[in-house]
Specification:
- This protein is of the alpha+beta class and 503 residues long.
- The protein is 18% helix and 33% strand.
- It has ten helices and 31 strands.
- The strands form six sheets. Strands 25, 26, 27, 28, 29, 30 and 31 form a seven-stranded antiparallel beta sheet that branches. A six-stranded antiparallel barrel has the order 5-6-7-10-9-8.
- A hairpin with a 4-residue loop joins strand 9 (152-161) and strand 10 (166-171).
- The longest helix is centred in the first third of the chain and has 19 residues, at 80-98.
- The protein is elongated, with a radius of gyration of 25 Å.
- The termini are far apart.
Length: 503
Amino acid sequence: MTKTKTILSALALTTALTAPALIAPLFSAPAAIAAAPTAPTVAGVQDFSDLAAKVSPAVVNVAVTMKAGTTGDDEVQMSDRSQQKQMEEFMQRFSERFGQPMRPMKPQPKATQKAEAVGTGFIIDPAGWIVTNHHVAGKADKIVVTMADGRKLNAKMVGGDEKTDIALLKVESDKALPFVEFGDATKVRVGQPVMAVGNPFGLGGTVTTGIVSARGRDIHSGPFDDYIQTDAAINRGNSGGPLFDMEGKVIGINTAIFSPTGGSVGLGFAIPSSLAQPVVNQLKANGKVERGMLGVQIQPMTGELSQSMAFNGEKGALVAQVQPDSPALAAGLKSGDVIVSVDGKNVDTIKDLTRMISATKPGTSVKLGVWRDGKDMTVTAKVGDQKEEGGVVKAKAEKADKKAESLSYGVSLAPLSKEAREEMKLDDSVKGALIASVEAGSPAEEMGLKAGDVLQQVGREAVDSPKAAVEKLKEAKDTGKPVLMKVYREGMTRFVAISPRAA
C-alpha cells in the first residue's frame, strides 16, 4: 500500500480507513494525446473544455487492495499514536518555517482484514504503461485501474522508486489505449495556467484548474524535493494524477497537499516531469532505478561556516564525513572539503550535488571541483552504486563523565572514558572530547549542540581530549572569527561555526 512519509500523509487514500492528510501524496497517470490548442476564453474566463476532452481519456482511477498489517507505517495501517506524532512533528516544522499554525486531525480507524485505497494514474504508452505514485501502489496485493470509458483492467506494478514516490504499472488491453506525453517542466513559469485531472475521494474523473503558484518547493519529503506548487484543487485520491499545461502535456505528477483539514486549501504539490520522466524510463527499462553514489555526508555552507573556513561565499556542499571504502575516499576527498562543481556544472546547494551524482550512472567517472584549505583543485571520482542507508549508532549522554571543563561557548567537555564509550556504544575509532552538557541559551545550544555529541575538530586541527579542545578553542577565539567545530553524533558528523562575539 502507500507508504506515509515523515511529513506527508497519503492523499490518495479515500476509504474510511484513510488517515487525514497534512501534506499528502496523490495518484497520477499520463495519456498519449495530441497537443491541445490554446484554451479559448469565454466571457473573459479561460475555457478548458477542449483540453479536458482531449486528455481525460488517458487518466485512470487506481484502486489498490492489500492485506491488513502488511504496510507497517503506511497511512492506513499507522497506529493512532504514530499518526498523531507525525502530524505534530510536521505542524511544528510548518509553524516554525511559515509562521502559520495547523490544526491536528483525529486519526481514522485501522483496518482489520483488508485495506483498500484509491488514487489516480495516467497512461503514457498505448501498450498500457501507467504512471502513478509509489505511495499509492507500492505495497498493493491487487491493483485495478478503471478507464474513463468504464472498463476495468487488472494491473501489475513493474517497478517503483520510493525516493521520488513514482511507480510504473502495466495493463494488457486488446486495443491501443489513449495516452498522454510528458512536457518540459523546466520551462514552466510561475503564474501560467494548469489543469489537474484525478480521482478525488474515489468520485472518478474530475477536472480542476489553477495556476503554477511556485517552483522548486522543498516540503522535506525526501532528497529530491523539487515540487511544482499549484492552487488547482487537489484532494485525497488525486495522488499520482497528471498536472497538465495548456498544450495537454504532463508537466507534473500530483503527489501532496498541505491541508489542516484534509481537504484542498489551494496548496498542492506535483513532482515535475523533468524529475519524473528519467525515473519512469529506468523503471520501464529495468524495473528499478540505479543511482550514483559518492559516499560522503554533506551539509550546506552558511555565512559563519564560510567565515570560519575563509571560504568565499555560501555556495557549495561541505563534506562533513567521508565513508570508508567509498568512491569519495578512493578519490581523495576529505572532511572539510567544499564541492563546488560536478563536471563543470556549479553546485550551489547540497541538493544540486545530490541530484547530479544520483543522476550519474554507477561506474561513470566525474570531475569534482573542490575547495580545500584556500585552494581550488579538481578531483576525479568513479561514481558507485547507491545502496540503502545502514543503521547509525544511538548515542546517550545521561551518564557521561562529569569531570568536565567549562568553556565560555556554553559546553562542558569530558574525556571519552571506557565507561562513557560503553554507555554510548562508541567504538575506539571515534576520537574526540565528549560534550557532557550544554548551557541553556548559550552559543553552543543555538547551533544545535547537545550533550552526548563528540567534539572532534576545532578549526583545522583534530582534538582527542578536553584539554586539546580547550586550547584550540581559546586560540580560535583570539582570532575574532567564528570558531569552526566538527561534531560527531549518532554515526554522522557535521560542521558548525560559533561566532566569538556571542561566546
